Amino acid sequence: MKAIINEVKRIWNALGYSLEGLTISIKTEAAFKTEVILLIILLPLVLWLPIATIKKLFIIESMVLVLLAELLNIALETCVNYISEAKHPLAKKIKDVASAAVFISLINSISMWAWGLWDLLQTYSL
């Protein structure tokens, strides 16, 4: 029984750390804050749109993927800056690759939106 209680405490603490990470990222990172605001605005829109459920799921997942990529980018950039503020080619590479991951996730999300809206636009076009 004690092992179960310890596991529940561990999971509860992990949840707290995760929420703290989200809060810090929203407060200190403009790009992440913008992406969260867009998710809050676009999520009800995608749920309201008359498109296939599978397309809605892909669109929602693609928006969540942007947040995930941005959080990893923030973590990597913070680690690099913590180690040294000095310019170094490897530090630049780390930051650029992490930024590229965010860019690819954004392109993916835009593509999912285009795919989801394509049939809808065809229905209402003349």
Q: How far apart are the termini? A: 67 Å
Instruction: Supply Rg.
Output: 19 Å
Number of domains: 1
Name the quaternary structure: single chain
The CATH class, by name, is Mainly Alpha
Question: Main traits of this protein?
Answer:
126 residues, mainly alpha, Helix Hairpins, 4 helices, 90% helix
Description:
- By secondary structure, the protein is mostly helical.
- It has a single domain (30-124), classed as Helix Hairpins.
- The protein has helices at 2-28, 30-48, 53-83, 89-124.
- It is flat and about 55 Å long.
- The mean pLDDT is 95.
Q: What's the quick description here?
A:
The chain has helices at 2-28, 30-48, 53-83, 89-124.
Topology, element by element:
Elements: H1 2-28, H2 30-48, H3 53-83, H4 89-124
Helix pairs in contact: 1-2, 2-3, 3-4
